[in-house]
UniProtKB/TrEMBL annotation:
<keyword id="KW-0808">Transferase</keyword>
<dbReference type="GO" id="GO:0008410">
    <property type="term" value="F:CoA-transferase activity"/>
</dbReference>
<comment type="similarity">
    <text>Belongs to the 3-oxoacid CoA-transferase subunit B family.</text>
</comment>
<dbReference type="InterPro" id="IPR037171">
    <property type="entry name" value="NagB/RpiA_transferase-like"/>
</dbReference>
<dbReference type="Pfam" id="PF01144">
    <property type="entry name" value="CoA_trans"/>
</dbReference>
<dbReference type="InterPro" id="IPR012791">
    <property type="entry name" value="3-oxoacid_CoA-transf_B"/>
</dbReference>
<dbReference type="InterPro" id="IPR004164">
    <property type="entry name" value="CoA_transf_AS"/>
</dbReference>
<protein>
    <submittedName>
        <fullName>3-oxoacid CoA-transferase subunit B</fullName>
    </submittedName>
</protein>
<dbReference type="InterPro" id="IPR004165">
    <property type="entry name" value="CoA_trans_fam_I"/>
</dbReference>
């Protein structure tokens, strides 16, 4: 059974470490804010100029002026600060973000990512993604394994305009956790109830499958 958006966010949250500065992209990545482990101090950064985001607000907590880069209302944690987007991008470009979590349209076996443009379709555009993939060494991509029409998003070579080249080492889809290394996707974990065969069928790029691939536990 494919992972829900919430389960994907929970799995990514396991990669957080105490003291990390983390940027969460638009879409599934933003949900990670709801699953920061208890007792762990993580500073979530948004490129519109906010450091120290908390979980999404309840109806009583909503402040229409407190938003993330995707224009979603957010909360803040003690010690949060608000500053200009210029300073925020200075943090990103200066390599001060420990982990970046991004969505994508495609990822390929060379670690290339396409996330900002589909010719002929109206999408939100680049945003801060190009700066994030250039300024971060530790990036996790979250996306569905295949499109709604069943086409694989894990490719031998990206077909869409690239956001960044050779920068992706880890991918979480709704079917699997994979690492990108030596021109291949390496299957590390599979979603509960999802077979290795299904993952093979829906992966267009070269896939390496170890002898034992554990199921994710939730």
């Amino acid at each position: 059974m494919a992972l829900s958006r919430e389960q994907m966010a929970m799995r990514v949250a396991r990669e957080l470490q105490d003291g990390f500065y983390v940027n969460l992209g638009i879409g599934i990545p933003t949900l990670v804010a709801n699953y920061v482990p208890d007792g762990m101090e993580v500073m979530l950064q948004s490129e519109n100029g906010l450091l120290g985001m908390g979980a999404f607000p309840t109806e009583e907590e909503v402040d229409a002026d407190m938003i993330n880069a995707g224009k979603q209302t957010v909360t803040t944690i003690p010690g949060a600060s608000i500053f200009s987007s210029a300073e925020s991008f200075g943090m990103i470009r200066g390599g001060h973000v420990d982990l970046t979590v991004l969505g994508a349209f495609e990822v390929d076996v060379s670690g290339n990512i396409a996330s900002w443009m589909i010719p002929g379709k109206l999408v939100k555009g680049m945003g801060g993604a190009m700066d994030l993939v250039a300024g971060a060494d530790n990036i996790i991509v979250t996306m569905t394994h295949a499109s709604k029409s069943g086409e694989s998003k894990l490719l031998e070579s990206c077909s869409l305009p690239l956001t960044g080249a050779g920068c992706i080492t880890r991918v979480l889809t709704d079917l699997a956790w994979l690492e990108v290394e030596d021109g291949a996707f390496i299957l590390k974990e599979r979603a509960p109830g999802v077979s290795v065969e299904e993952i093979r069928e829906k992966t267009a790029g070269r896939l390496i499958v170890p002898d034992h691939v554990p199921e994710m536990q939730f």
